[in-house]
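User: Can you help me understand a structure? I only have the sequence.
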Amino acid sequence: MIKQLLFSGHMIDSPNRETPRFPAERETQVRTALERVIESLEHPEFIEGIASAAAGGDILFLETCSKYQIPCRIYLPFETELFGKESVNFASGKWPERFKSVLQEFSVFIPEPGSATQNENIYTLTNNLMIKEALKFPEDEILLIAVWDGKKGDGGGGTWEMVDTCQKLGLAVEIIHP
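Assistant: Let's start by predicting it. Here is the structure, written out as tokens:
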């Protein structure tokens, strides 16, 4: 029985993104797919979600968990104002308001400045912290849900890296193609 939902997903495409990865017009389809995955799980009272909060897959996951009254912990690589500027405010629409809303609803964890090693970027560190938190449960009770196009990412700490790490750990992975 799944007790821990781990999430990683692409950000919504910025208006100037050359190669589409998660086009804004796919938001409804991705939300519906997230709902289907969560509805397919048995819902013990102690099921919990872990995610970041970027515009796109992360916020959609957090909003979906809220709908199903699943408590979540949000992991951000750095303080909320800078994260908003880097990973939310670029998106058109109400993403900044939605970001503020999920931050108010769920607990937020931010690693100590300088905690990434020399060979690890802050996004990879954040992914690893989320995985470490999920692994407080047995591996067969953890599900990674990933909104992912199946391609290697733009840099370290992205969805590809999270999927790869979780698969190597033997965790269940459910991929939603945006």
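Now, to help you interpret it: The domain at 4-12+48-176 is CATH 3.40.50 (Rossmann fold). The mean pLDDT is 92. Let me know which part you'd like to focus on.
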